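Regression report. Comparing outputs from two consecutive submissions.

Submission 1:
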Amino acid sequence: MAASVAREVQGIELALTSVNGGTFYNLGEILSVTPPTRTMGTIDVTNHNTTDYFREFLPGMIDPGTITFTANYVSSSSWASDLITSVMADRAKINWKTTLSTGEAATSSQNVWYGNGYITNYQLLTANDQAVQYSVSIKLTAKPTDSADTT
């Protein structure tokens, strides 16, 4: 039996910056990141010549999806939540980048994903006997660059 070649992850970084460039700011204490799910729309082309009572479809546009993450809220360094709420209030497009810590070189294309989008959700999460956390959603505005791309 062949040994598994699954990828191990020992941490993830998520960073944001304005689309005008500048420094990426790492958001600390990330707990989870849900990568975007790409979905393809369909176009119904069913017509009076369609047989067998089955609709016919063609592929439509691809929605790049939404990336979501949850992190611990660190009140002594509120710059992250200040940045997020400011960008959201200004309706400004941002660049995002995730980097997996796998023991491989951090510059490997297998470890870095990036793109741009708009922050569409920011929520503080509080529960009894748990750390205060926050959740953020970023709606992607175009195809992200990731390790699955071959172009």
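Submission 2:
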Amino acid sequence: MKKTLPLAVVFVISLFFGAAVARAQGNVKSGPDPTTIRDPELEKDSLHNLEVARQYFKLRKAYVAALQRCEEIIAGNPNFSKIDEALFIAGESNLYLSQGKGKQKSSLYVRHEGAEKRTLTPDEFRQEARTYLSQLFNDYPNSTFRKQAEEDLQSLGGPKPKPDGSKQEAGGRRQEAVVRKLVRVRGQTISNRSSNSQSEIRNPKSNYVLSRSWLGSVRSS
């Protein structure tokens, strides 16, 4: 009886520490949280865009087209179940465009700044690559794409530190600008709701709406 009691105590302690370790491991992100509630139609649309991006990236070496597809996923569906892969393809596509690689000229990638249209310089493509790959490296440590991202970041100055609140706000404004560019590129339309004056972006093909409230959620993600 005297020997049984210490054994029971040891057993209880081991269970306690085992649970603590399991909780700690559970806090490590291997990808987007699988418990996140996602819009089925938006998820389906993002999966389609990712599959198209894979084809452009791996088979056609069309890095401008691959980048644009991934930008649409990242800006429009930040809780996407495969967002880490979208970040990887976006980062690598920017890196290859900065090096003049691929079957598409980097000048085909255009950004709208007011009435002006311009492409990015090689250094700007490199900075974009570093931003996307750093987000992958920092936010998804168990992603299967993290090792390659880490290797490529070495030539880009290393991973960027995680942004503070003010930088996240700036990042949100950048993603809003990406959405507006995609509106022009993909033939979407912008309209205003007279009921609440919220600007919204509607995609006729998938019939979903990106509202100002959604853009606010992008900034906080």
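Expected: both submissions complete independently.
Actual: both completed, but the second showed a warning that disappeared on reload.
Relevant detail on submission 2: The helical segments are 4-26, 40-60, 63-76, 83-98, 122-139, 146-153, 165-185, 212-220.
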